[in-house]
Amino acid sequence: MIESPNQRRWHQLVERVVRLKVLWLILAIVLFGLFWGPSNRLTLDESIESFFAPTDPRLQTYQTTKKSFGGDEFVLVGYQLEDPTDSDELRRQKELVEQLSAVPGVKSSSTQSLADTLRNPRAEGLIRLAMRLPTTRSRLLDLSRRVLIGDDDKTVCVILRLLPEEESPVSRVQTFAKIRRIAHDADPPAVVAGEPIQVHDMFRYVEDDSWLLGWVSSTLLMLVILVMFRNLRWVVLPIAVIQLVLVLTRGLLYFAHIQLSMVSSMLTSLVTIICIATVMHIVVTYREKRLAKNRYDAFVETIQILAPPIFWTCLTTAIGFASLLASEITPVRSFGLMMALGTLLVPVVCVLVLPGGALIGKFQAEPFAPPAEKRLLKSLDLLAKRVNRSGRTILALGLLIAVFAGCGLVGLRVETDFSTNFRKSSPIVKALHFFETNLGGVGTWEIGFSAPPELDEDHLEKVRQLAEELREVKLPDGTGLTKVVALTDGLDLVPKIPVAERGFLRLPRLRWATLEERQELVDSLQPEMLPSLYDRKAGRMRIMLRALEQQPAEVKLKLIDRVEEVAQGYFPEAKATGLYVLLANLISSLLADQVVSFGLAATGVAITMGIAFRSFWVGLISLIPNVLPILLVVGGMGWANVPINIGTAMIASVSMGLTVDSTIHYLTAYRRSRVLGASHELAVEAAHASVGLALILANIALITGFAALALSHFVPLVYFGVLVSAAMVGGLLGNLILLPPLLRWIPFKSSVEPA
């Protein structure tokens, strides 16, 4: 075939690049050495607040409350005793409380326990005498019910308040490890829970998974390549490409002062998968060319053929990830940026590593044919012929599938039970079950409202009535709050304490304590109660609430809305907030801008495809076989009642960038045949025969890589791996079955090979 001037120039450029293979390899080694250190200094952002847009009202309310009352990060330590109120048991409890309060990072003055409540060392005089009365003791137990002691009168809890991280002498990791060690060694052993522990464990699992999943996915993919091609060189080369891409990506992120986030644990796995898919196409094409040419010429021709589609596949994949930059949520934006950067580095690193890696050395580097290749090629040929015969039927079936999937979108629901993010066998889930069963749950939150700078009885009466009504709040299924604590509960505990003063002729007399003095008495009994419920300077007050954590999504959100509705009947500006509320709305926050991100991804991919193939119709039609599988996966979640969680919220945008790769390779092969004069039917058969095998092998590698996510301790990553794998399979079938009938609609003269 006679080459055009453009083709000749392109061939000469590829040859010049390949000739410099030693220089590129040396440059790759130098870059790896320069970026290795910085790549290992990348840190993890563990802030839950970063998962909300700065303008989110929930976040703003939380930050306002945090400014007034502190971080409100509580750790709960629970265990069971035969008689917690027995004198000896109270003494033993006190010993444990002292150990826990001494842990660095714990605000010791704020520790709450049954031992301190019933035997308050700060109580003096008449207060101390009053606390020994059976009625006072009974009222103290009622106030502590479902907070410090369970309804079974056997379960007790120690509540530890954490110092703000910036004030803590040690890291949260060290604080939690010490608390858990003391709890484990206690007699009887105790369990540890609380929202800060849940968040901490989530990030620890994510951090551990990042390393584990990267190596597992790499190992699985290398085994797949070894089984398919039985050549060690083509096993080592992908590893070299993967490691250099990761080191460069992480190093550049470090220099740009960008932190990893909760969703960043997928970075290693996704980069591994993208690299393997790219190398897989090169290996299959190189093997075919090697049958008739020497190593050098076969490699040059392989790069000449595949460089354009590889460039466009990496660009469209990067666009899919870059669409996440439209999110207002920092971790999602950083994930989109790091994945777009890593994806764009793949072709660059391939140029640096593959020419030298494939051609340097005297031993042969030809991969063997995959097992059962002939049968697979025969099946692809039969598939192409059937697709050509049944184009209208396929399009009609595709439309029915789209309608079916679209109906499933109506049934989608959001998961807000944060405990479902962990495996049932994990320590945090077992601890949650203990507290949910015996102590009314660990869901600590609040309702906040304005208050006067000086408290008066009228305001306190409204607070008292609100607290009583909140205790009666019930949803239709019977769900309600398990505990309500207001400042009035403490004040009512000491309503008529006599105070001695000097009267007429300086003779002593008794009078009832004023409201101000009662506040001082409450402060002496529970030093944290008054400042944690009332901020005089800010003019804010709050009522602390507790609810079950392990509840269905819709129940939890309805309960929050109902509490706000009741509170606003007394204080119109009242708002619910706290980590419990933030975690309940976490997925909704993530999901809110994913529709925009998916729209941007689809638009960006369509425009890029149109530019690559210089055809508006190609760009438009290429979306259909890629959007349909994603629609089917997301709609299938609605039909199967699978909730949207942290991992599945970003499936659409990520899958869009990954599945379109097969479309580019297929269109390139199809257009090449049409340029040579083949009819539509023959071009479809040629595309199936040439790139069909590479697409199948690449998708096998992709799905194998995503299978590694099933090992994650963090359940959303398991869902992400399974559902993206399903989208990849759907994308492969869409490109081999649905795309060919759609190509009939493209005028031949409006399309050329990609630049």
Summarize the structure.
Helix content is 63%, strand content 7%.
Taking pLDDT < 50 over at least 5 consecutive residues as the criterion, the unreliable ranges are 749-755
Structure annotation, total helices: 30
CATH structural architecture of the largest domain: Up-down Bundle
Indicate the structural class: alpha+beta
Q: What is the CATH class name of the largest domain?
A: Mainly Alpha
**What is the helix content?**
55-70%
Number of domains: 2
The gross shape turns out to be elongated
Q: How far apart lie the N and C ends? A: 19 Å
Main sheet properties? 5 strands, antiparallel
Bin the strand percentage.
5-15%
Rg measurement, Å = 32 Å
Structure description:
With 755 residues, the chain is an alpha+beta fold. It folds into 2 domains: 5-41 and 200-362 and 373-416 and 589-750, Multidrug efflux transporter AcrB transmembrane fold (Up-down Bundle), CATH 1.20.1640; 57-193 and 424-582, no CATH class. Helices cover 63% and strands 7% of the residues. Strands 4, 5, 8, 9 and 10 form a 5-stranded antiparallel sheet that branches. Strands 2-1-3 form a 3-stranded antiparallel sheet, with helices on both faces. Strands 6-7 form a two-stranded antiparallel ribbon. Residues 749-755 have low confidence and may be disordered.
